[in-house]
Amino acid sequence: MKNTTKTLTYSGLMAALTFISTSILSFPSPFTGGYIHIGDALVLSSGVVLGKKNGALAAGIGSALADIYLGYASWALPTFIIKALMAYVIGYMFEDLGNFKKTGFITAFYSFLWVGFGFLVRGLIASNRIVDATQDLITEEVIANETELLSTVLSTQNIILAIALLLPLALFIVFGMSRFKPSIAMHFNKISAFIVAGSVMVILYYGTYGVMYGNWIIPVFSIPANMVQFAFGLTLATLMLPITLRFQLPKEEA
């Protein structure tokens, strides 16, 4: 009973902190009609403290409630799923940080996912099958014309592709070094877990927008903002690790 009460208390607290950090400290994102925030730090921390299942529920509920509170109710369900999946990834990887084989496999999967995503976006932009729904951006004077939009989209996509190729390479180099130094390995496993979770968020939000609105150009603008948002969240979550690890529930409770 005591363990159940502790788990419920921690879960409620993390859900509340996720809601507050997402809804209060948020700023509008003009290209997607959404917002950017620092709530990802608490989403990641939910996975660290509560484990994969309870962490997923706390992160998903807190983030979905923030969407509803800020007037983005149509995004509540996708947000719940995406944020819950982020926390689940963290909980799954943090429950066995000493398993370098598992971390290596997940890092490899993440690398192929990012590379595939980069080429997929390039292919969508290069094809003539993209739905043209950019008039609203022109009307609102966010961009001057379609040529400017396409130019910005292409440059943004090139940045995404560069990251898709360089970041996995950097991770594999560090992973190779970590096999010879356990202290580096543990730090690598933690950071790798955060990066994988962030990749899931960026890719799934892009895909969700495309499916919901039938436009694959506009959500490209959200990718850099999502990556900056997540980078800040990753940094904050990393700085919070000495605290969150102290409150981490035992595996049998999580």
TrEMBL record:
<dbReference type="GO" id="GO:0016020">
    <property type="term" value="C:membrane"/>
</dbReference>
<keyword id="KW-0812">Transmembrane</keyword>
<dbReference type="InterPro" id="IPR009825">
    <property type="entry name" value="ECF_substrate-spec-like"/>
</dbReference>
<feature type="transmembrane region" description="Helical">
    <location>
        <begin position="106"/>
        <end position="125"/>
    </location>
</feature>
<feature type="transmembrane region" description="Helical">
    <location>
        <begin position="188"/>
        <end position="207"/>
    </location>
</feature>
<feature type="transmembrane region" description="Helical">
    <location>
        <begin position="7"/>
        <end position="27"/>
    </location>
</feature>
<feature type="transmembrane region" description="Helical">
    <location>
        <begin position="72"/>
        <end position="94"/>
    </location>
</feature>
<keyword id="KW-1133">Transmembrane helix</keyword>
<protein>
    <recommendedName>
        <fullName>ECF transporter S component</fullName>
    </recommendedName>
</protein>
<feature type="transmembrane region" description="Helical">
    <location>
        <begin position="159"/>
        <end position="176"/>
    </location>
</feature>
<dbReference type="Pfam" id="PF07155">
    <property type="entry name" value="ECF-ribofla_trS"/>
</dbReference>
<feature type="transmembrane region" description="Helical">
    <location>
        <begin position="227"/>
        <end position="245"/>
    </location>
</feature>
<keyword id="KW-0472">Membrane</keyword>
